[in-house]
Specification:
The chain is of the alpha+beta class and 217 residues long. It folds into two domains: 114 residues; 78 residues, Immunoglobulin-like, CATH 2.60.40.10. It is 46% helix and 24% strand. The chain contains four helices and nine strands; from the N terminus they run αβββββββββααα. Strands 1, 3, 4, 5, 8 and 9 form a six-stranded mixed sheet that branches. Strands 2-7-6 form a three-stranded antiparallel sheet, with no helix packed on it. Helix 1 packs antiparallel against helix 4, helix 2 runs antiparallel to helix 3 and helix 3 runs antiparallel to helix 4. It is elongated and about 75 Å long.
Length: 217
């Protein structure tokens, strides 16, 4: 029993470290860029830059999620009151777009940058509870992992780890209920991390016991 508790504690610590590191990464990413929000895939988004004392505002470049460029030269934005705007229509590819620009705020050349996100629905929030498939698979993965820890049966833990990896990859691609953003990707990384940790733990248990279950010993 003491051996089981020690393994469970180690697993919990490792998973905690993965979650903490992921959240730190997300916070760092969010502080670097301002965001224009989320737009539905294939729809036109109006890029807006507020430049109260500028005589112009240009878009320098717009990068696709794969970091190729939709625009890679100075493109004029249209002045609308205190704002400058540009209608961007190349939103076929889902993911994170980054917009770089320049204006002359208060007579000084000023660079600006923000991002926006494209997904199939245009919604900005999602939860694992929005997807029954993820709930079912996650429940099975947790039960198998717990059963593996209690019984010290490596097979249970290994199958559970595979399910966690499947959940992670699925979430990375599709998000929650077709909502993909930095949050869903972070959760996906956590799922994948748990799957990797559980897989190595199961492999270690299998090697330690020589592939023999407790009933056979």
């Amino acid at each position: 029993m003491k051996h089981i508790k020690t393994k469970a504690l180690i697993l919990a610590i490792v998973v905690g470290i993965i979650i903490f590191a992921t959240l730190q990464y997300v916070n760092a990413e969010e502080t670097q860029l301002q965001s224009l929000g989320t737009v539905e895939q294939g729809k036109i988004i109006t890029l807006v830059q507020n430049c109260l004392t500028s005589t112009y505002s240009n878009i320098s470049r717009i990068s696709y999620p794969n970091r190729t460029f939709a625009i890679n030269s100075q493109t004029l934005m249209i002045k609308n009151g205190d704002d400058y705007s540009y209608n961007f229509s190349n939103t076929i590819t889902p993911g994170n777009y980054i917009v770089y620009g320049v204006c002359d705020e208060s007579g000084t050349k000023t660079n600006w940058v923000y991002d926006f996100y494209v997904n199939p629905t245009g919604r900005t929030s999602g939860s694992v509870f929005d997807n029954s498939f993820l709930i079912i698979i996650l429940g099975i993965a947790l039960l198998l992992t717990i059963a593996g820890i209690i019984t010290k049966e490596a097979t249970f833990g290994f199958i559970g780890s595979i399910l966690f990896l499947i959940i992670g990859i699925y979430t990375m691609i599709y998000g929650f209920d077709d909502v993909t953003n930095m949050y869903t990707r972070s959760v996906a990384i956590v799922f994948i991390g748990i799957g990797i940790v559980t897989m190595f733990s199961s492999a270690y248990e299998f090697i330690e016991t020589g592939g023999v279950s407790n009933d056979e010993e």
